[in-house]
Write a structure and sequence with these properties.
Length: 1074
């Protein structure tokens, strides 16, 4: 059936900030949907709070609203724009839940907006645990034995029908949030309480434990004519008990019999039909008991999901694009496959390779949390790799993680473990468990024991064992046949050299003599049955025994071309912001008439979408893979160079080897990059330019650090060199803390440690610039709202600055131009400053794109990454006629944190970055823009109620002024004894509340009973921080907004005062730029 003509304007809700369980895969799906619907002639209204996305670019939708995602703001936008339809399935769980809320509150019917993609009944049948269970019973499909509860008393009664362990799964939540496995009554009560509080409908499903079962997923698409296709089957290598987002997965499924696969396929189609999805994709999850083959349906997502992104990248089939077109009335047979351009979308993809996805964890950022996996997702990102067999695909994926692994490397900790210790570890659900399995096999633990303890399938353990056997062969012998065998099994050259102890020259000679190199294959959706028009490549060594024309799928063009190195898997410190820059770079290269080539290994991103670049290589971002691609692309035509300044620290780490290989680095020279990274050289440069910088030193051990403290006094900032996201960065106040730091497990012997004077009570500034080597354009000066000491990636910031005198701004501009010109930067520079006592200090200079580039681009309307790329390719700044316009609006960036996933962590911010994503608030008034950013970040500030105040002595003067404002807008003030006595001296009526150690009723009692609506808690000193830790954790658990810095509290309370009198306004960013 042709597309619908009764609708003209469609609204799409995005997924909001990057959080655990909902990452940049929804930027990919939302961007695809916008493009797919716009090309059909529909007007698109996009709403999202995340400025770091491609989907919020002003040219993607007709109207783009960067506003908080709640029904209040959505109703305002609907009232203003009057869309005919709302597409609910492209923004993850956030968009789905909001769509249901809008329907339930009758907002959609009030403005005559139709829900498309998935209707209210479809969403509720799939997401409501009880309705889904009934639906499965109706069609005769087995599901785990379980019961629904919406209060603790009912949940406790259910325990009589089930045995421990039991699984608790809240309805309508994200990434397993609020769920878990309970092994006893205490655990059960805690998880049920949390699950009910986090479920939007206060509902949990309590069911029999399937821990240790095998887990599978099917990606299904259905249209209005009841055509159904399976896009991809996915198998979890980790057993049930580990959230699917934290499990290693493979596509296609590898251990099902044909009979089991056909049953799962048919059952998936039965599920999608019964639930009623008829215009798009769904993800159906199954569990299989390895002992008796019992197969049960676990759940279904009636939307584009995390697995949909993986399935799209694994097969080349653009699920989000197809789902968007089905939502407007097309059927699968009417849509063409965008990759073959011949076959219809109703053809099921077939693949002749194996895809492996491995999650990326950042437990090192949350040292108080046990490194343990469960049914609540903990991973921040993921990488994907492709090979012609599992071993090749798996080892390439391990290399893609960027955690220092070249394969199944052992480490000191594992090597020191005895067999019995390894057997205990095999039983636990731990990150990167494959390393423990490999070590157990190396130490001779029987393969059946490994299977029994780890609950991994025999097939995968056998494959890992074969890798270990090849390692042993390499240790004894190295020749041509062994080399080819190891390469076909995914071994990197570095790993081969490490194990064989052969010389690099010998290896290079062998490769040269026998013309050995990786061959590049196509992802084409059809296993080579039809010609593929989209070059979407992966490398393999499996066919090296055959002639050069065997399975030749790569046709290198003779055009001028540019390679962009992406950012790899998402992690704290390097996320979607850098992918945004890489995507814009690709567009800019194509606009200049060159071929754009992307190298990346992140399946969630827009940069790895099939139509972003002329050629995409899905490969590890290590030097071997990058140089191999450069060599391959240079065989014909002309490689102009490689872009390394847009993908964060990942490409910069490769810059030296690329430079040594005589491949041109576009833009800023390697010499300038290295100068900024080398602390000694950088300090000398700043000194020669007569610019202020904090006192600093480089040390290699504790004794040197103690000597250094004779010239740099406490407090100090200390960190390892060459880190991103403030990794292992700490503020140290005394010698005891210093000794503890040097005895930490993240300190490596004989590696440089940087010590800097910490500028107490300073104000921090971020500056992003563009330069062509001569002229400099200052793109944005951002003022941090929190005081110095909070990592720039975690601090809220405003554009333009709000409290910095013009004289200081001009001085910062002058210093910036001086540094950028001296470094001869071509492209981006990010400089971080501190202002103390009206003196400007340079903290660091980064000769690359920063994480604030998308935010500044959205604020000013200037496509910075696009221009930076064109400057790298030879254009001049004057060609772009850029002007530093006076901004009519204030833009506030606020960070979003995953503290709810890491229960042992304190929420007090410091120099090590901990945020996963960001949001943006826009208004003509700074405090109101800040309030909007807080709402968007999930800090729903109250308009009335009780405020608990407990502040350090130096903040008491400020809290007196804030208390007066709070009283004026009818808040009740509660405070600890010290703060209350101070306020009462100035006539502020205050209720005294006990600290936890002062006995009940104390502050925790009030928080748990929901008698506190807002917390302002500033503290310093180890004892004070420790004493108030439980209060801050309780605030997170009960979703009570809190401020741990007085500067943030000041802006927020000023904003609350303003919005008492006026309503929030909404405006598309296209109109903001006018």
């Amino acid at each position: 059936m042709p597309k619908r003509k009764d609708i003209k304007k469609i609204m799409i809700i995005g997924a909001g900030p990057i959080v655990i369980g909902q990452a940049c895969e929804f930027d990919y799906s939302g961007a695809q949907a916008c493009k797919a619907l716009k090309e059909e002639g529909y007007k698109i209204i996009l709403v999202n709070s995340n400025p770091a996305t491609i989907m919020t670019d002003p040219n993607l939708a007709d109207k783009t609203y960067i506003e908080p995602l709640n029904t209040y703001f959505l109703e305002q936008i609907i009232k203003k724009e009057r869309p005919d339809a709302l597409l609910s399935t492209m923004g993850g769980q956030t968009a789905l839940n909001l769509s249901i809320d809008l329907q339930r509150k009758k907002i959609l019917s009030k403005y005559k907006v139709e829900l498309i993609g998935a209707t209210k009944s479809v969403i509720e049948k799939a997401e409501n645990r009880e309705l889904f269970k009934r639906s499965m019973d109706k069609i005769g499909l087995d599901s785990p034995k379980g019961y629904v509860a919406n209060n603790l008393n009912k949940a406790l009664k259910i325990l009589n029908a089930l045995k421990f362990p039991v699984i608790i799964r809240p309805s309508f939540t994200l990434g397993g949030s609020g769920g878990g496995t309970a092994k006893n009554k205490n655990e059960f009560i805690n998880i049920v309480k949390k699950g009910i509080s986090l479920s939007p409908i206060s509902e949990v499903l309590i069911e029999e434990s399937l821990v240790g079962w095998k887990e599978y997923e099917m990606e299904v698409i259905r249209d209005k004519n009841d055509n159904c296709i399976i896009v991809c089957s996915i198998e979890n290598i980790d057993p049930m008990g580990v959230h699917t987002g934290d499990s290693i997965t493979v596509a296609p499924s590898l251990t099902l019999t044909d009979k089991e696969f056909q049953k799962m396929r048919n059952d998936s189609i039965s599920v999608i039909r019964e639930i009623g999805v008829e215009t798009g994709g769904a993800n159906v999850q199954f569990a299989v008991n390895p002992k008796n083959g019992r197969m049960v349906v676990i759940e279904m997502n009636p939307r584009v999901s995390r697995s949909s992104a993986l399935a799209s990248k694994a097969t080349g089939f653009p699920i989000a694009r197809v789902a968007a077109k089905l939502a407007i009335g097309y059927s699968l047979d009417e849509l063409k496959n965008d990759i073959t351009k011949i076959t219809p979308a109703s053809f099921e993809p077939t693949i002749d390779y194996i895809v492996t996805k491995i999650p990326r964890f950042t437990f090192e950022k949350f040292s108080e949390t046990e490194e343990k996996l469960g049914t609540t997702m903990k991973s921040i990102g993921e990488c994907m790799a492709i090979g012609r067999n599992f071993k090749e695909s798996f080892q390439k994926a391990v290399r893609s993680l960027e955690i220092g692994l070249d394969g199944l490397n052992s480490n000191k900790n594992l090597k020191s473990k005895k067999k019995e210790e390894l057997k205990i570890l095999l039983k636990k659900n731990l990150p990167n468990k494959f390393l423990i399995i490999a070590e157990a096999l190396r130490k001779g633990i029987d393969i059946n024991t490994v299977i029994k303890k780890s609950k991994y399938d025999y097939w995968f353990i056998r494959e890992i064992n074969e890798i270990v056997k090849l390692e042993n062969v390499l240790k004894k012998k190295f020749d041509l046949n062994i080399y080819k065998k190891c390469k076909a099994a995914g071994f990197s050259d570095y790993r081969i050299l490490e194990l064989s102890r052969a010389s690099p020259n010998k290896l290079e000679g062998l490769k040269k003599n026998y013309n050995l190199h990786a061959k590049y294959k196509n992802i084409d959706t059809c296993s080579g049955e039809f010609k593929s028009f989209t070059p979407y490549m992966y490398s393999s060594w499996v066919s090296n025994d055959y002639g050069s024309n065997f399975e030749k799928e790569t046709n290198i063009t003779n055009k001028k071309k540019v390679i962009i190195i992406g950012g790899g898997p998402n992690r704290i410190g390097q996320g979607i912001e850098f992918d945004y820059c890489c995507v814009h770079s690709s567009f800019a290269i194509r606009e200049m008439g060159y071929e754009s080539i992307m190298i990346n290994c992140n399946p969630e991103t827009v940069s790895t979408d099939f139509d972003t670049s002329d050629r995409l290589y899905f490969e590890p971002l290590d030097i071997e893979s990058v140089l191999s691609i450069c060599k391959s692309e240079n065989l014909k035509g002309h490689l102009l160079g490689v872009v390394v300044q847009l993908g964060g620290q990942t490409p910069l780490k490769l810059a030296e080897k690329i430079f040594e290989s005589k491949i041109k680095i576009l833009g800023t020279s390697f010499k300038s990059i290295d100068l900024c990274e080398d602390r000694d050289s950088f300090n000398k440069l700043i000194k020669n330019l007569e610019i202020n910088q904090p006192k600093s030193d480089i040390v290699f051990n504790l004794n040197q650090a103690k000597k250094s403290l004779k010239k740099i006094q406490f407090p100090i900032v200390i960190r390892p060199s060459y880190v991103l996201g403030g990794r292992a960065m700490r503020i140290i106040n005394n010698e005891v803390e210093l000794e503890k730091y040097f005895h930490s497990n993240f300190i490596e012997n004989n590696k440089a440690i940087l010590i800097d004077e910490f500028l107490l009570d300073a104000k921090e500034i971020d500056v992003d610039t563009l330069s062509d080597g001569n002229d400099v354009f200052i793109a944005g000066i951002l003022e941090h709202i929190e005081e110095a000491g909070v990592h720039s990636g975690d601090s809220a910031c405003s554009l333009p600055p709000q409290t910095i005198p013009k004289k200081i701004i001009h001085e910062i501009e002058d210093i910036t131009r001086l540094i950028v010109k001296k470094l001869k930067v071509v492209g981006f520079t990010n400089i971080q400053y501190a202002i103390k006592d009206e003196k400007v200090f340079v903290l660091e200079v980064n000769p690359r794109a920063s994480r604030t580039v998308p935010f500044i681009s959205k604020s000013t309307g200037v496509p910075l990454a696009n221009i930076a790329t064109k400057l790298m390719l030879g254009k001049k700044l004057k060609d772009f006629k850029l002007l530093n316009k006076c901004l009519d609006y204030v833009f506030v960036k606020e960070s979003v944190f995953p503290f709810d996933r890491f229960p042992g962590e304190d929420v007090i911010l410091g120099p090590e970055m901990k945020s996963t994503g960001e949001v943006m608030g826009i208004d003509k008034n700074f405090p109101v823009a800040y309030i909007k950013s807080q709402i968007a970040a999930g800090n729903n500030l109250p308009s009335k109620g009780s405020v608990f105040v407990s502040v350090r002595d130096e903040d008491k003067e400020n809290i007196f002024l804030l208390s007066q404002v709070l009283k004026k807008i009818n808040f009740k003030i509660c405070a600890t004894k010290g703060t209350a006595e101070f306020l009462s001296r100035f006539g502020v009526e205050t209720e005294i509340v006990n600290k936890v150690n002062e006995g009940t009723p104390h502050i925790l009692d009030l928080i748990e009973k929901k008698k506190i609506q807002l917390i302002i808690n500033t503290t310093s000193g180890k004892k004070s921080i420790a004493d108030s830790f439980s209060m801050r954790r309780s605030a997170i658990r009960n979703k009570i907004p809190y401020f741990t810095t007085i500067s943030a509290a000041k802006v927020a309370i000023t904003g609350l005062n303003i919005i008492k009198e006026t309503k929030f306004s909404v405006k598309p960013i296209q109109d903001v730029y006018k």
